[in-house]
């Protein structure tokens, strides 16, 4: 049985190539595609953690894969400019998982 990380890498490399077969449905809107992608990645992440893969290793591999995909799509300069804004966004709490207090 393939590990979750291997399946995720295969899925991500497959997703970066245009499909060579017709699809029966229209493409999902951008927001829905992002929600679907997040669902797939969350599932693969949970399975990898279950298999004993360290969260830090998963995070680094995920960031590498994401940045490599962005570079292949937009180029190095555009991605470098994008990541320049990340420190402020991290400090602003955009990536913190906080439970809303009621």
UniProtKB/TrEMBL annotation:
It comes from the Bacteria. This is Uncharacterized protein. It comes from Bradyrhizobium algeriense.
